[in-house]
Amino acid sequence: MFHAVPESAVGVLLLTFLLAAAPPPPRGAFASGVYRNLFVEAGHSAQESRAKIDAAFRQLFHGDPATQALYYAAGSNANGPLAYILDVAHHDVRSEGVSYGMMIAVQLDKKPEFDALWNWARTYMYHSQGPAQGFFSWSVKTDGKPNDEMPAPDGEEYIATSLYFAAARWGNGAGIYNYKAEADRLLTDMLHRAVATGPTLAGPRTSGPLFNAARKMVRFSPVLGDARNTDDGGHTDPSYHLPAFYELWVMWGPAADVAFWAHAAAASRTLFEKAAHPSTGLAPEYANYDGTPWAAKWNKMSVHFSYDSWRTAMNWAVDWAWWAADPREQQLSDRLQAFFESQGAHYGNQFTLDGQPLDKSHSDGLIAMNAVASLAATQPRARAFVEALWNLPIPSGEMRYYDGTLYMLALLHCGGEFRIWGPGGSGFPPAR
After folding, report:
1. Residue 206 pLDDT level (bands cut at 50, 70, 90)
2. Considering the entire predicted model, what is its pTM?
3. Catalytic residue among 87, 92, 96, 417
4. Are 304 and 285 in contact (CB under 8 A)?
5. Is 96 known to be catalytic?
6. What are phi and psi of 171, to 5 degrees?
7. Residue 326 is a catalytic residue
8. Which of 113, 154, 308, 319 is catalytic?
9. Does 229 have pLDDT greater than 50?
10. Are residues 299 and 223 in contact, defined by beta-carbon separation less than 8 angstroms?
């Protein structure tokens, strides 16, 4: 005999069915411990993937110093061997490059190279006094003399995170090799260092911390009140935003700043969405804190998609891969890759934000970053961007610095080897 089911019960049954049928929420690598290998997903073997990564490291770190290498040994001091990463075309050493080199070394378990780079940065780039106190010069000569004492904050961000990873992989040593203590001090200065005024090569400068406390965002520069940084360092660089790292700092950094770094991660995810063009996904070189392009008098490309901008997709893609916290990052990758697909296989490397080409050069570094965007992409076209990276030769020649560092980072990301190395617990891979 048929019995009517009360309407309220029908609703409960329907909700139960829908919940059971719905796919589980995505889990990032921190929660799952699984790091996607996009090369394997594209049909290459895990052995081929690792061999490609190892070959790139050998060439870029220990290849022919005239045409291939970026890593150069530079003697030793009381702390041990010294080495730097060279911007070959400009013949200077940049905090960006040294920090990328440190991250690459810790990911590949290359402690000698890591320690030599860290020793060089701490010896020649770090400032213990003056307007840049607590930070690293963004550019110095190969003899360690600064071209500019002030920092570019993405270098500090990568240095701090690579130091935390080093502490987890290798343990802490003494002095500058107490990696965690050095990272903690750097994070504290990045957020809290007092405003200081003093002489620099560019004349007297006043600078503050690297993050805007009210906006919860990284600044383009800590310099205050000059032609480049009026209104409290009032602009940022979208490619400096690294929410994947900030989430780790919540757990590992000084306890007093936990809430700030959690807010910073959320603020950066929102900035990505606001800064990226709604049709193309292209982000500007520099931006106001509300995401609108910031026009620099000294850089006519600052309002367009240019060299710094390439890295923004890497930043949101690894954030999605590790934390799966903001589905807007998937939409951004899909939007960006749809735009570049529309430009053909040999797309240029600089554009207006709405997609008008400004330079037709086809650059290895941008190819690499567009492949990393596939970590967050949802459409089949993503595989073609991964394959484009796979088919690239290792960058060499005079312009190998930027292309080469981005290529190496991209291989690690796409090959499942750019991992969280922490003190233990869910999401951390076992030691090799």
Report:
1. very high
2. 0.93
3. 96
4. yes
5. yes
6. 85, 160
7. no
8. 308
9. no
10. no
